[in-house]
Amino acid sequence: MPLRLPHQLPAINILKRENIFVMDEDRAHKQDIRPLRIVILNLMPLKITTETDLIRLLSNTPLQIDIMFMKLKSHTPKNTPIEHMMMFYKDFDEIARENYDGMIVTGAPVETMAFEDVEYWNEIVKIFDWARTHVQSTLYICWAAQAALYHFYGIPKYLLDRKMFGIFPTRPLRPKLPIFRGFDNVFYMPQSRHSEVRSHDIKKVKELSIIAESPESGVSMVMARGGREFFITGHLEYAPETLDKEYKRDAGIRDDVGIPLHYYVDDDPKKGFHIFWRAHANLLFQNWINYYVYQKTPYDLSKIK
């Protein structure tokens, strides 16, 4: 089944070239199906790139999914045309009375700042609180994972001397969870962050469960509320070339960023890069949609509590 996307969204043509079946709203309205409703709060600077990355992963399901993008009133993005934001994104106030089957909150380039110093902190915690009563299951990614863990559970973050950067072997600690169905005993997760959360803090909170961890990059996935909240410290949604672009952007400019580990062939940027996380990325998003959204959400979304 296809994804239902806003008419003329740039990602549509990109994904069609990859033979991914997408459907714009005009055609989708003619089908008598109750699609899953997924809202994406996209905080990444290159919004069109992130839209495409996430839509690509959400497409790997037989279910029809209606995707909506949310933006913040308290922040104006600098790297995305205002026309794009006005056409495809809604403010929180416009959707605050609606319910959704699932929600994704992306990372943001503000991780070296104290949470309360982020200009949109007051707005985003309001959205976090809203999600608990209006969304069946939420994925918090990278900075959003740290921010939500801090807001809900008081988990601090720690700044790193050097950027955690590369593709890291990661182990499911609770492999029988449905989110890991079909996983191998090791999978690889892209990481690109200047701060971290630590296991000793998380283990003090009985409501939290560390469900995946890496010996090199630390806490990778945390679950709460029986799967209604997942906190993912890395970027399984990243396209193959994203770390390469980030490295070339920062090389020679930042002294706390090295070559991304386990990414380039022979650690040589001139030899190309390994791609060994995409299968598990698709599987994780498919499992989330199937086991924690589709099989748990009420048909009547107003009954979400």
Q: Report mean pLDDT, rounded to a whole number.
A: 90
Report the C-alpha radius of gyration, rounded: 19 Å
- Point out poorly predicted stretches: 27-32
Number of strands: 12
Structural class: alpha/beta
CATH topology: Rossmann fold
The fourth-level CATH homologous superfamily is: Class I glutamine amidotransferase (GATase) domain
Helix content: 25-40%
Give the CATH architecture.
3-Layer(aba) Sandwich
The top level CATH class name: Alpha Beta
Written as H for each helix and E for each strand, in order along the chain, the element string is: EHEHEHEHEHEHEHEEHEEEHH
Backbone shape? globular
User: Helical region count?
Assistant: 10
**How many separate domains?**
1
Function: Transfers an acetyl group from acetyl-CoA to L-homoserine, forming acetyl-L-homoserine.
Subcellular location: Cytoplasm
Family: Belongs to the MetA family.
Binding site for substrate: 163, 192, 249
Describe the structure.
The chain is an alpha/beta fold and 305 residues long. The protein has one domain: Class I glutamine amidotransferase (GATase) domain (Rossmann fold, 3-Layer(aba) Sandwich), CATH 3.40.50. Helices cover 29% and strands 26% of the residues. The chain has 10 helices and 12 strands. Strands 1, 2, 3, 4, 5, 6, 7, 8, 9, 10, 11 and 12 form a 12-stranded mixed beta sheet that branches. Strand 11 and strand 12 form a beta hairpin. Helix 1 packs across helix 3. The longest helix is centred in the last third of the chain and has 17 residues, at 278-294. The chain is globular and about 50 Å long. The model is unreliable at 27-32 (pLDDT under 50). The record marks 192 as: Important for substrate specificity. It is found in: Cytoplasm. Keywords: Acyltransferase, Amino-acid biosynthesis, Cytoplasm, Methionine biosynthesis, Transferase.
